[in-house]
Amino acid sequence: LSGHEHNYERFSPQDPQGRADPEGGIRQFVVGTGGGGEGPISDRIANSEVRTDGTAGVLKLILSPKSYEWEFVPVEGESFTDAGGAQCH
To answer: Stretch 24-31: mean pLDDT, rounded?
Structure first.
């Protein structure tokens, strides 16, 4: 989970070198949606699944011993959402 960019982006599971790894990789979220200094999102990079800019909100995570769930909750009046879940490995 990181928040250096002023947008939201979710990546598919990947290895430390940024290669897709659906079996053993780590899912990454960039969540810079607190409202300060918003700017346009850069070009899409490898393994990017979902992204948006200009939508303020928070990422809700539910962590369990064998699984996790996520839900992007936008501020009132915004329509972008993203939600899902996966098993841990």
So the answer is: 94
